[in-house]
Design a protein that fits this description.
heterodimer; A: 123 residues; alpha/beta; Rossmann fold; 5-stranded mixed beta sheet; B: alpha/beta; Arc Repressor Mutant, subunit A; 5-stranded parallel beta sheet; 5 strands; 53% helix
């Protein structure tokens, strides 16, 4: 918990586009952030010891949205942010995994609450 | 090479400045719109401007035309998200020597910039082909007109105006005063005119201008 609070936020930059390199340069040197380039997200699957970023930035204008979904499935604890500098917008994807057994589980997720099984598992 | 940035997106401009400096580029300033770019170009005299297109007050295309008219020695490369043909062709016609996309890979961007120093035209992949296609299309659709002989080459409207005024007997200083540009810029244009018309001296070019009735304009 202390580690989560005090350590810099790990930001992964996925892609070689100039807009992303510009953002990386902008974020470098910020003491609260640790910026790293990511060449291949499957590295996190192949290498369990790899440090998973807290946030991954990618270029929304050059990628399919399904890429973000794949990334969230791969790294469910990571926030994925698609940046669109042309329109000065960004889209944040939060991967929150939870159990789906009953209608109640689904309704709870829609209403933004933990599922029954998750509540039971987490006490 | 001294570089001026012109982009109204604050995050992109600040980040680009940091990225360029990290890669050893001498960034001498940043402008937030086309008018700011024009004023900063006059004050700072950059070698190169990386110019966005969509900007408030004065867009990048208009700023390019004004800067090139006044300071033709400054190189301007458009750096934009726009892949629009209209913007591309207008940029080239306005005097831009390159057109790069912000969605390009960083490595390609820096390679294009270093190529500029060797005289290459920095163009994103696919851009050169579109420009050639447009020239070919214009060549097919243009009606033949009474043009000067091919080896003499056409003059731009600005060059034609300067030549007309010189042919009328004005000094370079007087021409500059009338057009609100520096005398040395007039001298630069006259050198370009001599080159385009393949003439050897001012006397020849004035004779040509009078023969072609430039002084009657």
């Amino acid at each position: 918990m202390d580690d989560q609070v005090h350590r810099p936020r790990r930001v992964g930059i996925y892609g070689n586009q100039l807009v992303l390199s510009v953002l990386a340069a902008s974020l470098q040197g910020k003491p609260s952030l640790e910026v790293q380039r990511i060449d291949d997200c499957s590295d996190f699957v192949d290498n369990p010891a790899a440090t998973i970023p807290d946030v991954i930035l990618f270029d929304l204008t050059g990628s399919q949205i399904h890429f973000a979904i794949q990334l969230m499935r791969l790294l469910p604890t990571t926030t994925v942010i698609g940046v669109d500098l042309e329109n000065s917008r960004m889209l944040s994807f939060f991967g929150k995994e939870s159990a789906l057994f009953t209608e109640e589980d689904l309704i709870q997720a829609i209403e933004g609450k933990a599922s029954a099984k998750d509540r039971k598992d987490n006490g | 090479m001294k570089v001026l940035l012109a982009d109204d997106h604050r995050l992109f401009a600040a980040g680009l400045e940091s990225l360029l400096i990290l890669n050893g580029v001498d960034v001498i300033g940043a402008a937030c719109d086309g008018l700011d770019a024009l004023n900063k170009t006059r004050a700072l005299r950059p070698d190169l401007i990386l110019m966005d297109i969509q900007m408030p007050r004065l867009d990048g295309l208009a700023a390019t035309r004004m800067i090139k008219a006044e300071m033709p020695e400054v190189k301007i490369v458009m750096l934009t998200m726009s892949e629009n043909d209209e913007d591309l062709f207008e940029a080239i016609k306005s005097g831009a020597c390159g057109y790069l996309l912000k969605s390009d890979e960083s490595e390609r961007f820096f390679k294009a910039l270093s190529g500029l120093m060797q005289g290459d035209a920095p163009l994103s992949p696919g851009i050169a082909g579109r420009v050639l296609k447009e020239f070919a299309r214009q060549g097919r659709t243009t009606e033949p007109t009474e043009q000067p002989p091919k080896e003499e080459g056409p003059l731009s409207p600005r060059q034609a105006k300067i030549l007309a005024m010189v042919a009328q007997g004005l000094t370079y200083k007087e021409v500059g005063a009338k057009l609100f540009i520096a005398e040395r810029t007039i001298k630069y244009h006259m050198a370009q005119i001599l080159d385009r018309l393949q003439m050897e001296n001012r006397k020849q070019v004035i004779e040509y201008a009078r023969r072609m009735k430039f002084d009657a304009q």
